Structure to design on (200 residues):
């Protein structure tokens, strides 16, 4: 469905929403009778909400179903592809790290020779450059690079400052609402308006 057709279908709903906003803005509740009128207004607004939801789901449900089926269909083959990619990358890294370790040992010997006056700086620099593993490897099918990335690893959660600890609000809410007390947490109650639309 193109945008023009969608806008045409949505036009009546947009008009109703605009009117609902105008009515809601002008609404004044000073008496019990006004509260009854507000209840009717709220229900009319909720009906518009149901219309919007229905129209939106008419578009999103089929799309979500297609997406879900596509993910399920491709998931097994994607897992195998990622497995193959990881095996090759792990082997490449293993080789590269072994070469780096070998180069480090050789570099140490070169530095010792320089310190003893057995080799000049220029020759040492050339030798170190020659033994340093390449960070970029070019092949007919493509290029790979060995990069050093910086990341973090939490080694002791108990030492983390409080500002970096985020409470699990879903778990806390579930436990407290079940009647279990948690130090530092209190149960609060607040009033909300819950509207029920009468089916016509």
């Amino acid at each position: 469905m193109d945008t023009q057709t969608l806008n045409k279908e949505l036009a009546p709903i947009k008009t109703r929403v605009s009117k609902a906003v105008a009515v809601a803005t002008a609404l004044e509740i000073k008496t019990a009778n006004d509260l009854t009128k507000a209840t009717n207004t709220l229900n009319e607004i909720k009906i518009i909400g149901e219309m919007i939801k229905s129209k939106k789901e008419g578009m999103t449900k089929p799309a979500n179903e297609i997406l879900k089926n596509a993910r399920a269909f491709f998931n097994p083959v994607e897992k195998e592809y990622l497995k193959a990619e990881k095996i090759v990358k792990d082997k490449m890294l293993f080789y590269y790290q072994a070469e780096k370790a070998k180069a480090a040992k050789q570099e140490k010997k070169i530095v010792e020779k320089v310190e003893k006056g057995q080799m000049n700086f220029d020759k040492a620099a050339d030798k170190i450059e020659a033994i340093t593993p390449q960070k970029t490897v070019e092949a007919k099918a493509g290029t790979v690079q060995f990069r050093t990335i910086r990341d973090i690893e939490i080694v002791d959660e108990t030492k983390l400052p409080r500002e970096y600890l985020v409470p699990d609000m879903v778990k806390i809410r579930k436990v407290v609402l079940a009647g279990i007390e948690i130090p530092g947490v209190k149960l609060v109650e607040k009033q909300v308006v819950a509207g029920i639309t009468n089916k016509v």
